[in-house]
Each structure stands twice: as C-alpha cells, then as structure tokens.
Design a protein that fits this description.
GO molecular function: catalytic activity
Helix content: 25-40%
Radius of gyration: 15 Å
Largest sheet: 5 strands, antiparallel
Pfam families: HIT (PF01230)
Distance between the termini: 43 Å
Order of helices and strands: HHEEEHEEH
CATH class: Alpha Beta
CATH topology: HIT family, subunit A
Motif (Histidine triad motif): 107-111
Protein name: HIT domain-containing protein
Shape: globular
Structural class: alpha+beta
Domain HIT: 18-122
C-alpha cells in the first residue's frame, strides 16, 4: 500500500526533507560529498557493495523530473552524465545503471550504480545490497579518486 496522504505530505515537505538537510554537508550518514555544481551535489555512497556507487542530488527540493523546466532538466542530466564519466574513469565498471526513483526519499536524485565484472547481470538491482563499508583509508582513496575524475570532466 502506498503512503497515506499525511505520510506523503510529510515526505515531500522541504522542511522535513533529509536530502535538503544534509546533501550539502561534507559527510553525512549515507555519503560523502565528491563535488557540486550550481544544480547538484555529487556524493559517494558509504555502502560500496558496488564500487563507485554514488548519487547525484538536485540542490532544489523538487520531487519529480516533470517539475523541472528545460534548463534545470538539462543541468541535472548533464551532472548525472558527468558523474557517470567520473565513476567510469575511477572504477572502470562494465556498465553503469542510472536509477531515478524517489518513493522513499522524494527529492530528485539519481543513483549512479556501477556494474562490475563479478556482478550477476541477470539479478535485480538492489541499492541496499551488502552493505559493504570500506575502511577509512579505502573510503578516503575512493573519494579522492572520484574528486579527481569529477574535476577532469568539468
């Protein structure tokens, strides 16, 4: 069953939105800031069950793609593409899946979800797979690599 009207109203309220509250922070419970643009934040997800798994989060609180004007839409997808290029360069996946959902966190964001040589291409995508948490030094190395490739594709 879908959210009740009351629950949905709470979820889409910018004042209660977790992404509005912490997407700009250097670190939060779920991810580390890699880079940002005028339109988005690019973050490496802490759960690295798929090396390079990241998210691109729109700065403005918008719930769906259809709410963006053409310039905002172009900026969002441009940044998603740039993030994909950065992940590809830093982690050399076989393929990258791009997922825009938002039914649990209705703030426009795109999961940049790498698929690697040892992944099963026939299984369903599960962004909660794992979890696999890297050591502090491994995480720092992944963030540094992504920051470098993010800059390379500016």
């Amino acid at each position: 069953m879908w959210w009740t009207d009351e629950q949905w109203s709470e979820l889409i309220d910018p004042a209660r939105c977790g992404m509005c509250g912490d997407a700009h922070l250097e670190e939060n419970e779920h991810s580390i800031l890699v880079g940002s643009t005028e339109a988005t934040y690019f973050r490496l997800v802490r759960n690295q069950a798929h090396a390079g798994y990241s998210v691109v989060i729109l700065r403005e609180h918008v719930t769906d793609l259809d709410r963006l004007d053409a310039l905002q839409l172009n900026a969002f997808w441009h940044d998603v593409q740039r993030a994909g290029k950065a992940v590809g360069a830093a982690f050399t996946p076989r393929k990258i899946d791009y997922l825009v959902m938002g039914h649990r966190a209705p703030h426009l964001h795109c999961h940049v979800f790498p698929q690697h040589r040892d992944d099963d291409p026939l299984r369903n995508v599960d962004i909660a797979e794992g979890p696999v948490y890297l050591s502090a030094s491994e995480l720092d190395g992944s963030v540094a690599a992504l920051r470098e490739t993010w800059r390379d594709f500016a």
